[in-house]
Amino acid sequence: MKLTFITLALLFTAAFTTSIAPGLYKITCASNGNVMDIEYGGTSDGSNLIIYPWHTGTNQQFTVNYVDGSWATLVAKNSGRALTVKSNSSGASFTQQTVTGNSNQQFSFWVAKDGSYLIKNRASGLVLNCNSDSKSSGSNRLAIQESRSCNANEKFTFTKLN
Questions:
Q1: How many Å apart are CA 67 and CA 123, to the nearest integer?
Q2: How many domains does the chain have?
Q3: Bridge-partner residues for 29, per DSSP?
Q4: Which residue segment(s) compose the domain that 25 sits in?
Q5: What is the pLDDT of residues 29-81, one digit of tens each?
Q6: What are the residues whose beta carbons fall under 8 Å from the beta carbon of 67, sequence distance 6 or more?
Q7: How far apart are CA 125 and CA 119, in angstroms?
Q8: What CATH number is given to the structural domain containing 42?
């Protein structure tokens, strides 16, 4: 019985999680076509992750680096800093911070039926959401985390840049 349970658990996990190949990516929100962006091209700790139209800047390019099995950091090319969720609560926003490898900087990628991905934070178990109407930084829309509901605001495409 124990072996059957473990086998079923492994099959269930394999059916829904997937790896994105390590490398540099543009990460696009499925609901609005905008991309993940470090606000104002910031290079210091604490710069916000926003959702913004693509302009090819290095602040819109992120490197997937695996650190623990299926868990990866997302590192901004312009700063070399990792995306970091501010807290484990729903509605928390993301900043970039010096890479520590802590669980609030680790993400797994869950494939959706349409081939896009949900980006799940290891510390909170919540997914990145690109359509926050209530959270903003000036006129820019902050990326936040929320419970998974599989709507288009939680789905992203990864376009390899190198």
A1: 14
A2: 1
A3: 156
A4: 18-160
A5: 998 899 999 999 999 999 999 999 999 999 999 999 999 889 999 999 999 99
A6: 73, 101, 106
A7: 10
A8: 2.80.10.50
In a domain, 150, yes or no: yes
1 located within any domain: no
Question: What is the CB-side half-sphere exposure of residue 133 using CA atoms within 13 A?
Answer: 1
Instruction: Print the SS3 string covering 8-64.
Output: HHHHHHHHHEECCCCEEEEEEECCCCCEEEEHHHCCCCCCEEEEECCCCCHHHCEEE
Sign for the CA dihedral angle at 95, 96, 101, 106 comes to positive
d(CA 68, CA 72): 7
Specify the residue for token string 């990792």.
Answer: 82
pLDDT (0 to 100) of residue 136: 55
Residues 6+ apart with CB under 8 A from 103: 121, 122, 123
pLDDT digits (tens, 9 = 90+) for 101-126: 999 999 999 999 999 999 999 999 99
pLDDT at 138 over 90: no
Q: Is residue 75 situated within a structural domain?
A: yes
Q: What average pLDDT does the structure give for the chain?
A: 87
Q: Angle CA(85)–CA(56)–CA(30) in degrees, nearest 5?
A: 55
pTM score, two decimals? Answer: 0.86
